[in-house]
Amino acid sequence: MLKEMVKTLKKQSVQEVHVPYEAANKLKNALSNLRFREGNEWLNVREWLGSVVKHSLNDEVINSIQGFKSDDDQCALIIRGLPVDGNLCATPYNGYVPPSKVPLASAIHIGIYQLSQIEPVSYQNENKGFLFRYVVPALNALNEKSSHGSTFTFGHHVDNPDLPLACEPLTKRSGCPEFLSLMALRSDLKVRSNFILLDNLIAQLSRGVVNELCQPNFRINRPDSFGQSRSSRLPILVIGEDGVMLCRYDKENTTPLTESAAAALVMLEAQLQNESLKQHVVYQPGDVLIIKNQRLLHSREGFKSRSDGADRWLARMFGMSTLERIVPAFPEFQHIGKD
Ligand SMILES: [Fe+2]
């Protein structure tokens, strides 16, 4: 099996596309009068939002968005230059504003998911089940290693890693998010987000190490963003459909439980320091990054919040290829998963 897996390591890539001025303007005008409040109201009109995005953008950007989900080689897509709301409120240091405060960005974000046929999802115990999480240097979490932290580098990780990966069976809990997107509302040009593509990382490891990482000999704790603590004994790497590798490594929440698991983790972490594997993104307002959460590792460097109302502010959303990977927490909201 491992031999087959090595044969099928993909040539993963990152695509970057730019939205022309005219397309951005058309999108802004088409979405200028939105009146919705909570996330689920936005989801009710997502078909319309998808068609507005489709009819406003140019072919190159549309094709990249539509092709992203099913193209195994594509692991990250960066769309630059989308319009954002002109009269933004101050960066929400408590981590929350209703999406109606940023209607244009929220509408475009959902419209892009619709166009790419990715289902927007959230989790009952993470971010209070809200669809959008605002990645900000929250004043009550400056020292946290989470999307609300800032001071410390937030090490390489996959989001919500203790939930079942795309090739693992579901029982009572929803699956780990397959997609994760970030839309920049305010940027800080000094702050880099890094990522390492999984297959490039695995190619640097011996078969013995990869085999060890595929054993369920690691304790994976729930990340800080969940309002509950839990740990599970799981493998870090899983061989999915057609030999595609999936990953649940999370620097802050992974503990090896055997000597050989610890040795393999040392080898993995040594490669995470390998500068030649790292790619980075610096966001500007209006940039959207969509990644395949289980196919790469992402991290954010530490920074100092100015606390002046104009700090870095990103909107995050999770996605699934199908709602079958979600165990609904409430019958009326099929996109909010039990976790
Ligand atoms: Fe993350």
UniProtKB/TrEMBL annotation:
Keywords annotated in UniProt: Dioxygenase, Iron, Metal-binding, Oxidoreductase
InterPro entries xref list: Clavaminate_syn-like, TauD-like_sf, TauD/TfdA-like
Listed Gene3D superfamilies: Clavaminate synthase-like
Similarity comment: Belongs to the clavaminate synthase family.
TauD/TfdA-like domain ranges (all copies): 222-317
Stored Pfam families: TauD
Positions that bind Fe cation: 298
GO molecular function, one term: iron ion binding
Coiled-coil positions: none
Protein name listed in UniProt: TfdA family taurine catabolism dioxygenase TauD
Species for this entry: Celerinatantimonas diazotrophica
Top-level taxon in the UniProt lineage: Bacteria
